[in-house]
Each structure stands twice: as C-alpha cells, then as structure tokens.
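FAQ: What does the model actually see?

It sees only this:
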Amino acid sequence: MSTDFISRLVGMVVLSIAGLFLGVYLADLVGTSVYLYGTIFLLIGALSGLILTPYLTVRPLALLRQQIRRVPVQHLVSGVIGMTIGLVIAALTTFPLSMLPEPFNKVLPFLSAILFGYLGVLVMTLRQQDIFNLLGYNRLIARTEEGKNSLRPTVLLDTSVIIDGRIADISRTGFLSGELLVPHFILTELQHIADSPDTLRRNRGRRGLDMLRRLQEESVSPVRVLDLDVDGVRDADDKLVLLAKQLHCAIVTNDYNLNRVAELQGVPVLNINELANAVRVLYLPGETLRVPLIQQGKETDQGVGYLDDGTMVVVEDGQPHIGSEIEIVVTKVLQTAAGRMIFARPVSRG
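And it is asked to produce this:
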C-alpha cells in the first residue's frame, strides 16, 4: 500500500473519532439527539480525513524532501552552522533579558532566538563561499607519496562537452588522470535541457544525462557531482569560470565563447575539438591512401570523401569514381578554421 493511501485511512479513523466526540459535545450543549449529531459529525470527520489528510501530511513532506534534495549540501551545512551559532548567541542573551519586567522577560528571549537564528542562517548562507574558502574546505588537496600536499589535477566539465560525448571515450583511455567534476548547476542545466519542449534540445539533454551516467560507470578517472554554487551569478558559464578560479582547475569544453572568456580570465581550458584536430593523422604531399568518394565537389571534375576522423578529402578528377573507394595521392594539405582539408588526385595506373 502507498503512503498516501495509509495516510487517508489513518486520517479517516482519527477525524471520525474526533467528529464523534465533537458531535456528542455539541448535542449535549444544544440539548438534542446525541446519536444524530454523533453520526453526522462522525461521517463528516471520516470524509474529511479521507480527502484532506494527504494534503496536510504526506504531500507537504514529499515536497519538503524534494526541495531538500535540490539544495546543495554546502547550503544545508551552512544553514545548520549559522542557525547553531545564532541560537548560541541568543542563549547568551536569555539571562539578561529574563531580568526585565513582565511581559518583556518572557517575550524578548523568544524574539531574540528567532532574530539571531535567522541572522545566523542568513549570514552563513550569503557568505558561505568566502567562509569556506577562508577555512580551506573548497581546495581539493591530495597527499603525494612523499607526504607533501599538492593540488589534484582536477577538471570541471561543461554542459557542451558532456552532451558531445567524446569525453567518455577520452576518460576511458586514462588521458585525464585527475578527478572529473560536474558542478550541480551544470547537472541542473542538463535537466532543464532534457525537459525542454523542443525535440532537438530534449534529445540533446537526454544524451547528456546518458553520457554522464556512462562517465560514472566507465571512466578510469573518478567522476563526482560537486555540491558547490556561485552566489550572485545566474549564467552557468560565468559560474563555471568563477568556480574554476576558486578551485584552481581547468575547464573541459567545446564552447568557443566559453573557451575565449575563460582564457581572458586566466582559467586553463581543455578543448575537445582542438584535441581532436591535434591527434588526426598527418598526411604529407606524395603519400597515398584509400578513400571512398561519396559526393561531387565544387568543381565538376572533383570528388569528395571523408576519412574516419572526419577530415575532408577533395580529389581532382575524382568525379567518375563517386560511389567507389579509390587509391589517391596527396597533393596538398590545408589547415582551415573548420579543420584540416586534404587535396589529392587518383593514383595513375600504368
């Protein structure tokens, strides 16, 4: 049985009993039939309990649990510490306030507890980053074999690189030896994209969530969702740059604009697109290779094909060979902003 159903049964029993006693009391007060009033109020209590109990007990608690899950751990810890400090200060003021004449000696200690408790939570949550940075809790430190402290080679993952998916294959190879951190606001952004009414954005968001799960399952490096936020900043990219500066770590991204903004602020960036271009096979003029031609080029006699890594190959006099795989000889390699292009011609026979 569900919790909602159990709460309805319990509420029905409790409120029916309460309705019965209320009906008997009102019948004695009015001087009318006890059985009539008792039965009417018993039925009203049972019906009220059956309908209203989940809205007064189970559902508010479920909503509260859901909100607590969404709040980062650092916020919860900050609130509890702030409230504790505030209540301690309020307790210190209780004795002098209790010496005041009535009714101040009873009202002011209670107001003092509310005031200082609220101020403690407010100050601690608003300045939590500064306080935790001062205490050194936000520094990710690891012990080396020699017993010295050193910063772990951690990196922050951007939304674009998670959705792209190639980071899962890279991390599985062990090239990223440090910890992969996914800030909570990046996870929230992925969830918003996955809930988008636009089909394309929704599919991209779901792909990102799937890739994140794959990262956690297959990555050689540990993957951790970081319960840290940056107050006063709403844009996820700005938060990511500020958080990277606080943690002294790099950002892994495919976003060109984020790449430039981070570099201007002195934050190291690892761009997956730049890595992909860097590890492509380098072909020199005069080398031969085989490539399938799939379409016609800009010129009528050209054929265009692609290598396994996505490099475009433009073959002069390749138009008759479209739809087949031929052997070509490289004549020129051109590096453009969009990537590397190879110009070639068919290998002459005979």
